[in-house]
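Reviewer 2 asked us to include a model.

Predict the structure of this chain.
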Amino acid sequence: MNDLEKYFLENEGRLIYKGKHYFEIYDRHFSRFRNTDVHVVEFGVAHGGSLRMWKEYFGPSAKIFGIDINPHCEELEEEQIKIFIGDQEDRNFLKSLAEKIPRIDILIDDGGHTMRQQINTFEEIFSRIDKNGVYLCEDIHTSYWSRWGGGYKKRGSFVEYSKNFIDAINAWHTKTRKLQVTEFTKSVYSLHYYDSILVIEKRPIEKPSFLKTGMPTIPEIQPPASTGLLKRFKNRVIGEIHRQTDRST
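Predicted model (structure tokens):
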């Protein structure tokens, strides 16, 4: 049991509502920020319990920012915790946060969980996260719930939208114009999909290189050609035989 889960289970203060398996994921990706001056942004304040949990977990130098549409959440501000009120789906509001929050090391999207809220928040805020920061979107199971705008393999759900990230981090290896190296490709180190959670770890990335060391010890064989290549080669050989036959007659 890590410190976050321990805090949660012993909590008798403000309400916290989290998936039981979330705490291992949080600790895996957030532990390196403990006892630093980390700036944490969480969409979805509710009763403020998780903001206090982050405050305890990250330590006295951390700055915690909460965002919620409920104006009563402002009453939950305290030392190290600042609350902003606004609509997570509103792109102008999201843009304004960048001016109010000097740095974002960790972004936790635990807001309204609709497809537009999650996608708009990602598109407006992700680039603002520190180059070595972490983005975490939780409760992405709403991508399978029609009430939140989702549905299995439904176009426009956050899960379907995020599947493009897999192509994006591999864009170095394709020559098609449909998939280009972007700022996302250059700034994302890893994608981690869990039940109900997507974590993206940022890190400056250079074009990958592949090296060999050591000496060969066994004969190498060429991999089998694809069916299409083999067929074209066969046709070329047969054509050459026919041309040689025609010349000799």
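The chain has one domain: 3-202. The longest helix spans residues 227-248. We have added this to the supplementary material.
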